[in-house]
Design brief:
The protein has about 900 residues and is α+β, with helices and mostly antiparallel strands. The chain folds into 4 domains: about 90 residues, no CATH class; about 230 residues, no CATH class; about 300 residues, no CATH class; about 210 residues, no CATH class. It is about 50% helix and about 15% strand. Strands 1, 2, 3, 4, 5, 6, 7, 8, 9, 10, 11 and 12 form a 12-stranded mixed sheet that branches. Strands 15, 16, 17, 18, 19, 20, 21 and 22 form an 8-stranded mixed sheet that branches. A 4-stranded antiparallel sheet has the order 14-23-13-24. A hairpin with an 8-residue loop joins strand 4 and strand 5.
């Protein structure tokens, strides 16, 4: 039997060595039996043979005993661990019950930090990280965007809605993809009722369902034969919720019919529960219909079929790379496949200069090239929520550290009676983890309470951001609790590990430990992080203030918008014009309405780019100019919107089709095209024709924010609707009072004029403007909330530190007062300490913020990220809070009775 190595015996001081114990036990039995046999007179060879016969296969016996021993030892370790954990938890609970105020303060602080992070995570996760469920091979699935450069070559625009010929070109001309599909999210009336609600519906190609590992729970998915252009088949696959709500979850729903939009569809299948298709940022679709059937309905009557037209955007393209193809190779394959169409459009010269491309990126829209500023602000707010959690952890760590300092004598006594430092550290960490767990539970309630407000700020309409019922959010809270518990427990554990048993048993509480460097560092960290949040709040508040105070060039509050959705109703040009006139008349008859007009594109909705030629301006000069956007408007448009005509006139009723072409240009456009000259009466040739007739400038309007609030070039012009009938039109209505009060009566009046299944949606124009200011509103709101929370936590932390210092220095303060110190001197002693800590936090936080503030510049509006007024205001606020948090405990110290303090010592 081999001897146990010497080094293995030392493992038993850390944990039992089962293998060594088994070897020792077997060796004992072997040696005892051998000694017995030798005592009987057996020869050594006979002894070995007898032992081998009696004990059998020694290695098998050794393995079996080791397995049994290891199982027993693991069970004992679990029992010891659970016993130790229960003991530590009982001890922690008893300690917290003795100090309920302290426990409540810690739990409330952690609840605010963890709750804010949970609520933000629920939103940011859905915007930036969570892919649709049941997606097969999500890492290889992409959303496709076309890169169409601007004429000046300075930027690119990536539309994700493609014409059907583009989709076929990319699908048939590439070899890097295992599958391709087309889809679009629309809202359609679902049900046979005249007032059926508009619900989300996903129009998809037959290949769409192959992207998901989601076999139907009933029936089947529609196939390629049912999704063949031009008309497709009127079949529908229902969501699980629709199947249960409309058909009671019955199997005989297959073959039933459901009216969606203007078409009656036959039910062929039901998707599994939780399947939402490609919907990532909106409500789950209630049904899935062939994209060809939908397009045949909505484009009926057009001169060119939707499947051959390059001007009808049909849907978003999905691609799934083959496993052996990289993302870069797949993207190059897409760009090469698109080249023939780009060459036909642009020619070889512009193609070589602009280098257009096709981008295959994440399925999540906010992670693609069209990422909105709201998503960027959401990600930034998520980072700031982590800063708040750090501040909360620093605050709690300071409180726990102060508690550990007060318990030094208790800790010294426990160490003196034999408690190991390892056991002591485990108890302290258990206490901090218990507090963090309680804070996490309370934080879930905070997150649930604030979820609706965050949803309204960040998430698009119809989307949901659950907290309590979401596994990923709950897992995030669990991680946050663990991190917070460890971070807050490290400081008191480290302090407890430095306790000198002899010294602290002798001095007890008389030794002053108020100037703990760790406590000071934690407090300065809180102040620095608070400066970071407060500067962000100040910058976003100023941005929002600037955005809401600028002159837009039109009024917002008294204006309503009415958008027409024909839902497949086919009208020729004459009947379309007649319908629009009836709608204008109906709008003017609604009580509270002053004027009504038509416009092809609402301001801030991206005006159409016009093709212009101006006599006297050569082609080289023209290429250097930015895009010119335009809108087709009816008479009274400028009066409805409140846009001032600074020279000439607006579009008049006399600007009919037979009259000379009339246009109104913006003031900046007039200065750009005719610098130092009068723009009135100038000839501008509008259109794609070789020699279009002149359209004459009849007026100059004030500049408007027509395409965006930030850096709008204001190169905008307006043409008469009677002379250039728009394909689509939006009604704009000016009311006498508050526009939202007229929304419902306006909707009813206009809906009565709409033919068939066509519908009208009425909304205040303020909603459009609010959407443009949404990112600044979000940033201002969240930064102010987080900044106020951080400032409050920093003030509480500073107050706790000064109060603790005063309590520890009561003997020193008593001596000072006895020697003649005035109360003001004692107050200044505490205030000076608080101000010193505040200035340190301001200095460090200000330096870090100045270094990082440049990244905020794209999210701000007409304010510098290094605005001195903001930094000065934050510094003043921090100093004021530091002074206020210091003066209360300092004044309490000034009222100390030196006789009482000195006698107690």
């Amino acid at each position: 039997m081999p001897r146990v190595p010497h080094w293995r015996r030392y493992l038993r001081f850390w944990r039992p060595d089962v293998a060594a114990d088994v070897d020792d036990e077997l060796r004992f039995h072997f040696e005892a039996r051998a000694e017995e046999l030798r005592a009987r007179g057996l020869a050594p060879a006979d002894v070995a043979r007898t032992i081998a016969e009696e004990f059998g296969d020694v290695e098998a016996t050794r393995r079996g005993l080791r397995e049994i021993g290891e199982r027993v030892e693991r069970r004992r370790e679990r029992q010891r661990w659970w016993h130790q954990l229960r003991t530590d938890l009982r001890y922690a609970v008893r300690g917290l019950r003795r100090t309920p105020g302290f426990a409540a303060a810690v739990v409330a602080t952690l609840a605010l930090g963890i709750g804010a992070n949970a609520a933000i995570f629920a939103v940011v996760d859905r915007l930036l990280f969570r892919l649709p469920p049941m997606l097969d091979a999500p890492a290889r699935t992409h959303r496709v965007y076309l890169g169409l450069p601007t004429p000046d070559g300075d930027g690119e625009f990536f539309p994700d809605l493609l014409p059907y010929p583009f989709y076929r070109q990319l699908a048939d001309g590439t070899h890097a993809f295992a599958r391709t599909a087309l889809y679009a999210d629309v809202r359609l009336p679902v049900g046979p009722e005249p007032d059926a609600p508009e619900l989300p519906v996903e129009t998809v190609s037959a290949s769409f369902f192959g992207f998901f590992d989601a076999p139907p729970v009933l029936g089947r998915y529609f196939g390629a034969a049912e999704d063949r252009p031009p008309n497709g088949s009127p079949v529908v696959v229902l969501s699980d919720a629709t199947w249960r709500s409309r058909f009671g979850g019955r199997a005989d729903a297959l073959g039933a019919t459901l009216r969606i939009g203007a078409t009656t569809y036959t039910v062929v299948g039901v998707v599994p529960p939780g399947f939402v298709g490609a919907a990532t940022d909106a409500a789950a679709p209630v049904a899935f219909i062939p994209i060809s059937a939908y397009e045949a309905e909505v484009t009926a009557g057009q001169r060119r079929g939707w499947w051959t037209s390059t001007s009808v955007n049909v849907g978003t393209m999905l691609v799934q790379r083959r496993p052996d193809v990289s993302a870069a190779v797949a993207q190059a394959d897409l760009t090469a496949a698109m080249m023939p169409i780009w060459k036909e459009w642009m020619g070889d010269g512009p193609l070589a200069r602009f280098r257009p491309r096709v981008v295959a990126t994440s399925l999540l829209p906010e992670r693609g090239p069209n990422q909105t500023s709201a998503a960027r602000v959401a990600a930034l707010v998520g980072a700031m929520a982590l800063v708040v959690l750090l501040i909360a952890c620093a605050n709690v760590a300071n409180l726990l550290l102060a508690r550990a300092l007060r318990r030094r004598r208790e800790i010294a006594v426990r160490l003196a009676i034999g408690v190991s430092r390892r056991r002591l550290l485990a108890q302290l960490l258990t206490e901090s983890l218990l507090l963090a767990a309680l804070g996490g539970l309370a934080g879930l309630l905070v997150a649930r309470w604030s979820a609706s407000a965050l949803h309204a700020l960040f998430a698009p309409p119809g989307a949901e951001s659950p907290v309590l019922g979401d596994t990923r959010t709950l897992a995030f809270v669990g991680v946050a609790v663990l991190v917070a518990g460890v971070l807050t427990g490290l400081a008191p554990a480290w302090q407890a590990g430095r306790v000198d048993v002899t010294r602290h048993l002798r001095t007890g509480l008389r030794e002053w430990a108020g100037r703990s460097r760790l406590r000071v560092a934690l407090l300065v960290l809180q102040g620095a992080l608070s400066v970071l949040l407060l500067v962000g709040a100040g910058l976003f508040v100023r941005s929002l203030r600037n955005a809401t105070r600028i002159r837009l060039g039109y009024d917002v509050a008294p204006v309503l918008t009415a958008t027409l959705d024909m839902h497949g109703v086919r009208l020729d040009t004459a009947h379309t014009a007649a319908l629009r006139e009836r709608l204008l008349d109906a709008a003017r008859r609604v009580p509270g309405v002053e004027r009504a007009a038509l416009v092809s594109t609402l301001p801030l909705r991206g005006g159409e780019v016009g093709m212009l030629r101006v006599p006297g301006i050569d082609s080289m000069t023209w290429r250097r100019l930015p895009d010119f956007h335009y809108a087709t408007v009816s008479p009274d448009y400028f009066a409805v919107m409140g846009t001032r005509i600074v020279r000439g006139r607006g579009i008049a009723r006399s600007d009919i089709a037979e009259a000379p072409g009339a246009m109104v240009v913006s003031a900046t456009m007039a200065r750009t095209l005719w610098p130092g000259q009068d723009a009135m009466g100038r000839c501008v040739r509008v259109g794609h024709a070789a020699a279009p007739p002149c359209t004459y400038v009849v007026g100059v309007a004030e500049d408007t924010k027509a395409t965006r609030l930030h850096d709008d070039p204001s190169l905008y012009y307006y043409v008469a609707a009677a002379q250039m009938p728009p394909r689509r039109a939006v009604l704009v209505v000016r009311t006498h009072g508050d526009a939202p009060t007229v929304v419902e009566s306006m909707r009813r009046a206009l809906q009565r004029e709409m033919p068939g299944a066509a519908r009208v949606a009425v909304a205040p124009f303020a909603d459009v403007v609010d959407e443009e200011t949404r990112s600044w509103r979000m940033g201002a709101t969240m930064f102010v909330v987080f900044g106020a929370l951080a400032l409050t936590l920093a003030a509480v932390g500073l107050y706790a530190v000064i109060a603790y210092d005063v309590a520890q220095r009561s003997h020193e303060i008593g001596v000072r007062i006895t020697l003649g110190a005035r109360p003001g001197d004692v107050v200044w002693l505490g205030v000076r300490q608080g101000m010193t800590l505040g200035i340190a936090g301001i200095g460090i936080g200000g330096a870090v913020t100045l270094a990082a503030a440049g990244r905020l510049a794209p999210l701000l509006f007409e304010v510098s990220p290094h605005d001195p007024l903001v930094y000065a205001a934050v510094a003043a606020a921090m100093l004021a809070v530091a002074a206020a948090a210091s003066v209360i405990p300092a004044r309490r110290a000034a009222r100390v009775d030196p006789n009482v303090v000195l006698r107690s010592e």
